[in-house]
Design goal:
heterotrimer, A mainly alpha (about 45), B mainly alpha (about 230), C mainly alpha (about 230), B: about 230 residues, mainly alpha, two-stranded parallel sheet, about 70% helix, globular, C: about 230 residues
Chain lengths: ~45, ~230, ~230
């Protein structure tokens, strides 16, 4: 904690890494949902 | 899965490597970045801003490529790919413009200066805007696909002219432009140290992988939508 | 006469026929001529009102000339294709002439229309707007001529696209502007140079860009026109 208070740039870095991991997880789940839909659609036709 | 894993790890590493190394005037060890006069800490933007600009150009080329393929084979999937690439291109183009403008405010004093690179990205924005206005104006799918493919090809053959025009009529402000005879063109040649270069190219690769993944998802979603429309 | 020769004679005849068809219908209705003429007059009047008695620099006036020319072209040069769609004559023309003949016939018509438009605009502009001085006349004429050809060549293919998109006029400037921007930037800088009294040698780069632009746009349009024209 003291380290972070001294090197403030690292706080920004942690935030950006957090945003990126959040986006990554979102894209990952989106892909899962698309895959499910693809299976359903292709079974129907 | 390999693509997603590589992307996840690589971009995380890039973010860490972009922020952690201290910027010092006389770099002593491998993890220190050199101080570039006039840029200082703001130099770190290059690892994120330039890849977005690069993707907006790459998306444009991808869109044109599938446009040409549509005209040859008349396969609706190619049109879906072409428009999906253009959609992502528009997204990254807006991101490049906004991030560049924020940075320019603090480096050059105003959000917009009509620097050659700013003009180039503005033209690209206009082309994407025109492309989607054209698409929304046509109802019939085949016609929409043909017209937008043709338009993207015509736009693509006129864009290279800017490489010759820019240096003639404007002077560059962009980093990499100073004292460089062709520095006022739309393409950037940065004078980076080796370790910056490594992070920069790793970032370019990571963003390209991100583009491939997003493109893949978007095309699949567009295909589902298209099939759904055919049925209903 | 070989078959190739016979084909090319037929092609030239078809091109001229397409051009003459538009030319005669234009003479009958005078739609494009009057629309363009009125557009140029109102725009120049507008500029005169907004300038008032303030003196404007030659650089600004050189750029304004191309603002007038661009929007005037956007108001009239789409006519030749939109007309075919409106009257439902596109099908007939499709059957009677090969696509490339249609393209070059229409291009020829737009070149003539564009030349007339440019001439009218430049004459009115030079007469009415004080402070618009051209020091090297030859250079100015060269830049204006090539600019007008370039304007017509890019406008023609975009006109073909928007006629098919049945949006009529609204999208025309939106689609044309990014395509025409390289041309406009070059001619504006060329006009500015002419008003400052530059020599031909100074503007070699401008001419190279203009000529290659015209060649590239016309060739691409010729190659792609078939896809737009035929359903």
């Amino acid at each position: 904690m003291e380290f972070l208070a001294e090197h403030q740039l690292y706080i920004v870095m942690i935030i950006v890494v957090g945003i990126w991991l959040g986006l990554f997880a979102y894209l990952f789940r989106l892909e899962g949902r698309i895959r499910k839909l693809e299976k359903e659609t292709d079974r129907e036709s | 899965m390999l693509l997603r894993g590589t992307l996840g790890v690589l971009l995380t590493l890039v973010i860490v490597a972009a922020f952690v190394p201290p910027i010092v005037s006389q770099p002593q060890s491998w993890y220190e970045f050199p101080l570039i006069p006039g840029l200082e800490e703001k130099a770190r933007i290059i690892f994120f801003h330039v890849p977005t600009a690069w993707l907006s150009v790459m998306a444009f080329v991808t869109s044109m490529f599938y446009g040409i393929r549509y005209l040859r084979k008349r396969d609706m999937m190619d049109d879906l790919r072409s428009s999906s690439a253009a959609g992502l291109g528009l997204l990254f183009c807006i991101l490049a413009t906004v991030t560049g403008a924020i940075w320019a405010k603090f480096n050059w004093g105003s959000f917009w200066n009509w620097d050659p690179r700013e003009t180039s990205i503005f033209v690209l924005l206009l082309i994407y805007g025109a492309y989607f206005s054209l698409r929304s104006a046509v109802e019939v799918e085949e016609k929409r696909a043909t017209l937008s493919s043709v338009y993207s090809i015509i736009a693509a053959v006129t864009v290279p002219f800017f490489i010759f025009i820019m240096p003639r009529i404007m002077t560059g402000l962009h980093p990499g432009a100073k004292g460089d005879p062709d520095g006022a063109g739309p393409v950037i040649d940065f004078k980076m140290s080796l370790n910056m270069r490594v992070v920069f190219f790793a970032s370019l690769i990571a963003f390209t992988l991100l583009f491939i993944w997003m493109f893949n998802l978007r095309v699949r979603a567009a295909r589902l939508e298209y099939r759904h429309q055919l049925k209903g | 006469m070989t078959s190739a020769e016979r084909y090319s004679t037929r092609w030239v005849r078809a091109t001229v026929a397409v051009f003459l068809k538009d030319w005669h219908s234009e003479l009958r209705t005078r739609y494009a001529i009057s629309a363009l003429g009125m557009f140029v007059i109102t725009t120049i009047a507008m500029i005169l009102f907004s300038l008032g008695s303030e003196p404007a620099s030659p650089e600004v006036l050189a750029g304004m000339l191309w603002v007038v020319l661009f929007f005037a072209a956007m108001s009239g040069l789409s006519r030749t294709f939109v007309m075919e769609e409106e009257r439902g004559t596109a099908m007939t023309v499709q059957l009677q002439a090969p696509p490339s003949a249609v393209y070059f016939g229409k291009l020829l018509f737009n070149l003539v229309l564009g030349a007339g438009l440019t001439l009218l605009t430049v004459v009115l502009y030079a007469l009415l707007i004080e402070g618009f001085v051209i020091r090297s006349t030859g250079l100015f004429v060269g830049i204006i001529a090539l600019g007008s050809i370039g304007l017509a060549s890019a406008s023609t293919i975009i006109a073909a696209i928007i006629a098919r998109a049945n949006t009529k006029g609204t999208l025309y400037p939106v689609l044309s502007f990014p395509i025409l921007l390289p041309l406009l930037m070059t001619v504006i800088s060329g006009t500015r140079m002419a008003s400052e009294g530059a020599s031909w040698g100074d503007a070699v780069g401008e001419f190279q860009i203009l000529i290659s632009y015209i060649v590239v746009v016309t060739t691409t349009s010729y190659l792609l026109f078939e896809y737009i024209w035929k359903d």
